[in-house]
Amino acid sequence: MWFYKKILLSFLLLLCNANALIDFMEQSQSLNSHIQYLSTTAAKDYNEALSYDSKIWSETSFFKPIQEDYFYWAKVDLKLKAGSYYFEIVRPYLKDFKLFVLIEQQLQDSVAANRSLDAKKNTYEHWSFVHEIKVEKTENITLLFRFKDPHSLTLPMKLWTKKAFHTNNHELSLLYGLLSGLIIGMALLSFLSYLNFRDKTYFNYIFVIISAVAFVVFYSGFGTKYFIPSAWEEKLGFLPFLLLLLLLVCLVSFTREYAKTAEKHPLWDMVLKYYSYGLLAISFLGTLFSRAFIMKFAAYFSLVGLLLFLLPGILVRRKNSNFNWLFFSLSPPIIVGLLMTLQRVGVLKNNWVDEDILFVSFFASVAFMGVRLSQNLKVMYEENIVLQQEVVENLTKADKLKDSFLANTTHELKKPLDAIISMVDSMGASDDKKNKDDVALNLHLISTSGQRLSRLIDDIVDYADLKQGGITLSFQAVSIDKCLDMVLPVLKPLAQKKNLKIIKDIPVDLPLVKASFERLQQVFYNLLGNAIKFSAEGRIEVKARVRTDSNVEVSIKDYGIGIAPENQAQIFEMFQQVDASIFRTYGGTGIGLSIVNSLIKAHNGKVWVNSELGKGSVFSFTLEQSSEKKSEFKKLDFQPMHVNVDDSLWPIAVKSINDQDKGTILVVDDDQINLQVLLNQLIVEGYQVITASNGPDALEIVEYGDKPDLILLDVMMPGISGFDVCEAVRLKYNASVLPIILLTAKNQAAEFLKGMELGANDFLAKPFSKMELISRIKTHLQLSKLHNSYMRFVPADFLKQINCQNIDELNLGNHLEKELSILVSDIRNFSLFAEKLEAKTVFDILNKYLNKIVPVIRKNNGFIIRFVGDAIVAFFPDGADLAMATAIEINKITKDWKTINPVNQEVIEIDAGIGLHYGKVVLGTIGFDKRMDAAAISHDVDKTVALESYNKLFLSNILISEELWQQCDQKRYRTQTIQKQSPEFQVIINEIRELLGYTVV
């Protein structure tokens, strides 16, 4: 409470007359505003000083010293009650100081002290000067002071009662101890934060704390008393003010770093920077000059520093969120310091602020900033967590990219390796009669695969060398036109296969470039190869020009798929592809463009891309001009890089027929060498082979061609992957009807599981032996044939209706109730003429009849559960109109169809009756654990059978029920109502119609 009382009391005293006699009534009293100064320096002793008239004593509460070598006098008149009092001078820094205590104008006591008022002269152990005054009764007391060389225009004096003095010391010690502990904790936290985050803000904050504590310790007199020997006190009198200047330097440095003035307010930052330089210069010069010099400049520079902080701070704090905290934190001590500085230089009279208020406000400010930095620490910690998560994600991504790169590279390496192994196996298994042309072709394929493998290894070696900076380039004067003449003939066959034209637009006067001829070829092969790969048709343009910076710019433009903006920045990184997953549209290892980027950088050039998704890309790079002129250029014996493009494999055979046909196998692979290898191996084993080089061609063969017995399907294909093809095939054929064996170089569990989920029957990891391949094919063909044999007895449509994919999923008691259209057909009087025929003839006639009408039923999405003699019960799940169409077509077939009895050459005419009805049917299986059959159980089936039998009574061919009639498009058909002839019809069928045919338009 003493702190607030002191502020209030000091404020009230400002309103009082300074020359009035003080009637001491409080526990403590500041004497600053009641000091009177003698306006002359002629007084030699205290008697002479007191002899001057009161008019000679200054009525102002401050004065300005004139000469430093003269004595100055000041006094305070008090009226004290009986008791013991402590007189304290706080941090006076006076020279030749002496105190005279007079009671009723009689000298009672006197004490002299040096500049720091040595504690040995104290009557109480304290870091300030303290002198005890004892009063026996209420008397008038005069305190007279003599001194030289005042550093300021005020004397910080206080008078205490004994109890108040001890209480104040105790409270002050606790407060300073608490603040010091808080400050030290903040410094330690800032130090640890700096070690952790390496943020200079925390580093500067530590120096602010250190310099602030040092200034307070020495300015208060505590440091002078306990840390500086008496012999050095006079020489180091400037130390507190030097520390003040260093504190200002630290504050300026902290402000610049925390508020980011260099980035956000460069002009203000420059002013602060030169201000700190000035502070350092004054601090250094102050050690060479007198204490008065450094004191005076410390005061003025402090004033300038305070203004530099406050005035711009008010303007920028709204634009700088960080500075808001700094401004509100440092404003209180800065304002207090500003008032004290103005007081010291004589602008203001004595005011209510003193050093204690300054210290407390400053310590509180530093603590507040520490709290703010702690909050920033929390934010930084959270940001660090996010950053760590991003680092982990990036590392995970890099790990996945590495795995993808290894998988893709392995796949690319295995392709030619598998081809070589398979070709050698194929040649070893061939007989002596094998055509020499086939042997030559296989040897050529082996050579081509080996060259391809060598190129891939070269790319990987180049990648490793570029990563380690181990590639040494041999620069020479190179003609871009001549270099392209070496590259384009090699790539043109690939371009021609895709109907691409490569247009070269190189000016005749284009200067030579400084480059490695072999590496420049490698750049062109990569960029032009990508342009061909990613373009379906059109043209590719190669241009070159001289830039304004005298470099040569080369651009390669294609009209292919293009690159999305978000992917353009990463395509030049290692392992990166626009679509790096297994479903990528185009192959490759993902290091081609990265090698290009590294090679161009090694040529002191740069490479970039401009692209729009779906419209094409333009890859450009720059090269330095050669100092050699084109007229001086000699034609060198340049050799093209060894890049073999095997044009003989285009196109590969679509279908190969073998006399020993063991089944038809569709082989799908985008690699022509792999196709040729598999073709050779399967033909030798007696299989008929159909080949497709991409997914769409394979799906077209399955959809519109003859159904193969088995599919060998490569997973990693351009456009539509093997997984996509497998999924599409399974929409039409289940795994038992058409087996699929997936082939891939990625022997990974995830690949296997995905393939099985999409309906593949088996999975072969490359490389595989011919024996393993043929064994797998034989196994799956045998299982498929066995399944197809079973399916002759259990219709696939029936299995589909009861939600079974394969016959092995069928269990006794499976059933499902559905509303279906029902068709029952029966040959009239079949039993009568069958008795006249031989058994073989009966079965031949019946089978010929069924072979004509069953396709009609299947065409209209109907299915037959079983055959009962000459009768057929068919179901149509997709609508009554399909059942009506089937009935009309069957009726037409039976009317037009006749057969001859082979025994007597008698003409046999077949006439069939048909009944149509719509109702509920329970489809399921009946039997026992050793044998079961498909069955349809329903009262509506019985109704349909009865309806078919009425054709004999009404001499009709097709009878339909009212229930079916309500389900069909009635406008399409001609019908007539049958008149009922007996009551029994009413019980069986509510209404009967005869179907005559389609409506004639």
What does it look like?
- This protein is of the alpha+beta class.
- The protein has five domains: 170 residues, Immunoglobulin-like; 155 residues, no CATH class; 159 residues, Histidine kinase-like ATPase, C-terminal domain (Heat Shock Protein 90), CATH 3.30.565; 140 residues, Rossmann fold; 201 residues, 2-Layer Sandwich (Alpha-Beta Plaits).
- It has 29 helices and 33 strands.
- The strands form seven sheets. Strands 24, 25, 26, 29, 30, 31, 32 and 33 form an eight-stranded mixed sheet that branches. Strands 1, 3, 4, 6, 7 and 9 form a six-stranded mixed sheet that branches. Strands 18-20-19-21-22-23 form a six-stranded mixed sheet, sandwiched between helices.
- Strand 14 and strand 15 form a beta hairpin.
- Helix 12 packs parallel to helix 18 and helix 25 packs antiparallel against helix 26.
- It is elongated and about 175 Å long.
- The N terminus is likely disordered.
Cα-based radius of gyration, to the nearest Å: 54 Å
What value does the average pLDDT take? Answer: 74
Major sheet description: 8 strands, mixed
Assign a percent range to the helix content.
Answer: 40-55%
In CATH terms, what is the fold-level topology of the largest domain?
Alpha-Beta Plaits
Poorly predicted tracts of residues? 1-20, 115-122, 580-586, 632-659
Cα end-to-end separation = 112 Å
State the secondary-structure class: alpha+beta
What spatial form do the alpha-carbon principal axes imply?
A: elongated
Name the CATH homologous superfamily of the largest domain: Nucleotide cyclase, GGDEF domain
